[in-house]
Design a protein that fits this description.
It comes from Pitta sordida (Hooded pitta). By secondary structure, the protein is mainly alpha-helical. It contains 18 helices and 9 strands.
């Protein structure tokens, strides 16, 4: 999960790891785990902290890479947050991205949280930390004016809904039990130096200058179906739902493997011979020829020359069975791509349309 500090990537990564029962890998989590387990790295961290020294970037990176190569991660999978790091004390950003590319278990999905610079800086500058617990609170959690505003809006939306009122009362009771109740102790919260607006703006500029381009290159190499971009201005739960739904959709798409395994066992051509999956997958070849991508119906699957084709309708099935070859010859399968080019008069729309059509053998 990529983006600058304060965008909510750690919160999202933790929720996804809990949802999918994966290992959550992040610098502070890895440090705490090693200290708790009293590993070799953990003892080194403890020794440095007792001396009042900071843990080096080299040691943190080694712990993260060791965790990524562990048997636990190989079994459960992982959600990685905060790596590559903006700090180049130990490794440059390009070296860090190369490490990600060369992992034994490369990421299946990349999640990029997008947030405008101004909104991000305002969010960071609104953060406050509790000096004793170390807990970081957003402005919406500690600022009485913002809390009151949100409470009024919530009351208006939930008026007359008894169930939601009961949930609200439960939440208020839980908050009252919190030893670090923000409403009571918000005056104790402090602003960290890195959260001051000028420092936040400087770090955002540094992020765009140093890290954005290597990350864009990493994302460009990823399968577009496995690259998820979410709006960082949404509420954390909405960002989580959007990311989770994208991953669910992809996983459901990959469930067609089960479909082909089932279909290949029907009407075997010969002992030990199964029908093979075609390059069209579950997409209907007739619909593809017409410029649409429609998933086929398993009940309308046919075999031709040892391969399985899944049609989307009875009409498509009849058309395909009459003469399948027009739907199988090159340049098929050709996933349809529709492009709209717009702009003011004389801006070059016609020229760019013709160039794109020529390059990708499309029609204007």
């Amino acid at each position: 999960i990529f983006h600058f500090k304060g965008s909510g990537k750690k919160t999202l990564a933790r929720k996804l790891a809990q949802r999918w029962n994966c290992i959550f890998i992040e610098a502070s989590e890895v440090i705490q785990a090693n200290i708790h387990e009293e590993s070799e790295y953990g003892l080194q961290c403890q020794e440095l902290l007792l001396k009042g020294q900071s843990i080096s970037e080299e040691l943190v990176t080694e712990m993260i890479l060791q965790k990524l190569e562990s048997l636990e991660v190989a079994h459960y999978g992982y959600v990685l947050s905060g790596f590559p790091s903006l700090s180049e004390e130990y490794m440059s950003i390009s070296q860090q991205t190369e490490k990600i590319k060369n992992l034994k278990l490369k990421p299946d999905f990349l999640i990029n949280i997008k947030c405008p610079d101004y909104d991000l800086c305002q969010r960071i500058s609104g953060q406050r930390q509790h000096p004793h617990s170390g807990q970081v609170y957003q402005r919406s959690q500690w600022d009485p004016k913002v809390i009151e505003k949100h409470k009024k809006e919530k009351d208006q939306h939930e008026e007359g809904d008894e169930e939601e009122e009961e949930e609200e009362e439960q939440e208020e009771e839980e908050t009252a039990k919190d030893p670090h109740n923000v409403s009571e102790s918000f005056h104790q919260l402090v602003q960290r130096p890195e959260d001051i607006l000028d420092n936040a703006e400087e770090r955002v500029g540094l992020y765009k200058e140093l890290m954005l381009h290597p990350l864009e290159e990493l994302m460009a190499e990823q399968d577009c179906q496995c690259l998820i971009e979410v709006d960082g201005n949404q509420q954390p739960d909405d960002v989580f739902e959007a990311s989770k739904n994208c991953i669910c959709c992809y996983c459901c798409f990959n469930e067609q493997d089960e479909l082909f395994r089932a279909l290949s066992s029907y009407n075997l051509m010969a002992p030990r011979f199964r029908w093979r999956r075609s390059r069209w997958g579950q997409a209907c070849p007739v619909a593809l020829k017409e410029g649409d991508m429609v998933m086929g119906n398993p009940d309308l699957a046919v075999s031709f020359l040892g391969k399985i084709y899944v049609l989307s309708s009875q009409e498509a099935l009849k058309t395909f069975m009459l003469n399948p070859r027009p739907y199988l010859l090159p340049p098929m399968p050709l996933p349809p791509c529709k492009v709209l080019v717009f702009g003011p008069p004389f801006s070059g729309r016609t020229t760019i349309c013709n160039l794109i059509a020529h390059k990708y053998k499309g029609k204007v």
